[in-house]
Amino acid sequence: MRGRSGWSLVLLAIGFGYLGLFLLVPLVAVFAEALSAGVGAYMDSIRDADVWSAIRLTLLVAAIAVPLNLLFGVSAAWAITKFEFPGKSILVTLIDLPFSVSPVVSGLVFVLLFGAQGWFGPWLQAHNVEIIFAVPGIVLATVFITFPFIARELIPLMAEQGRADEEAALSLGANGWQTFWHVTLPNIRWGLLYGVLLCNARAMGEFGAVSVVSGHIRGKTNTMPLHVEILYNEYNFVAAYAVASLLALLALVTLVLKSVLEWRYGLDGRAGH
């Protein structure tokens, strides 16, 4: 037992050392650099009009992408776990597609489809519709990158729960909407919130696909990650780290909420048993 305890301490030390080196130290460095010129310089950087434009765009894109993926994720998980239909395995495979495709490649695909020289480019130009290098393109790219998160969180959860509760509700006279609202949704609420949280975090932090389709138009199509890159390339390090610190704060809030949801979900799971 003493030898096993010694190995446990060694493994814990390695784990915490790894976390400290690759997670905590960079996080501390971001805030230290952001405040290196003082709180006044930090606040001036945050108040910049282009920074606020990037913040608004980031929140707007997340506010559109997350509800769309919520609708898709719940619908896909419901269909996959509660029904049998042709093409079910293909749908499950397609849900994982954004995980296997580079975000940059997915952005290039949207340029190929909707760019000025793309398949639909001439039609879009003729009807004065802007997608690439505009907000719609950023939303499309973000939706594509983030749509597996909610579905992938719900599918194993709903598959484990089975169909018994829904079938019992239907046998008692409930319609489909009543069954979903009063039976299915309460059973998946914590997993659903967890998936939404992860989806939102990825939507606000996405860089690769958004970088390709945005055009990097300052004050118009720059999200927060893109604006950090521009400021850093301009050697405006304080402003770059200030905006990066906002993203880091969002990540910390996401981590706290994730831990709370895992704790609540664990409590519900133990109570159910």
How do the helices and strands line up, and which of them pair or pack?
Blueprint: H1 2-34, H2 39-47, H3 49-82, H4 88-95, H5 97-100, H6 103-114, H7 121-126, H8 135-146, H9 148-161, H10 164-171, H11 176-205, H12 208-214, H13 224-233, H14 237-272
Helix pairs in contact: 1-14, 2-14, 3-8, 3-9, 3-11, 6-8, 6-12, 8-11, 8-12, 9-11, 10-11, 11-14, 13-14
Q: In summary, what is this structure?
A:
The protein is mostly helical and 273 residues long. It is 82% helix and 0% strand.
Can you walk me through this structure?
The structure is a single chain. The chain has 273 residues and is mostly helical. The chain is globular. The chain has 14 helices and no strands.
Characteristics of this structure?
273 residues; 14 helices; 82% helix; globular
Indicate the structural class.
mainly alpha
Gross morphology: globular
Distance between the termini: 32 Å
| Helix percent band | over 70%
Oligomer: single chain
How would you state the average pLDDT, rounded?
A: 86
Biggest β-sheet, characterized? none
Order of helices and strands: HHHHHHHHHHHHHH
Per DSSP E runs of 2 or more residues, the count of β-strands stands at: 0
**Beta-sheet strand percentage?**
under 5%
Radius of gyration: 23 Å
List the uncertain runs.
none
The number of distinct helices, counting runs of at least 4 residues, comes to 14
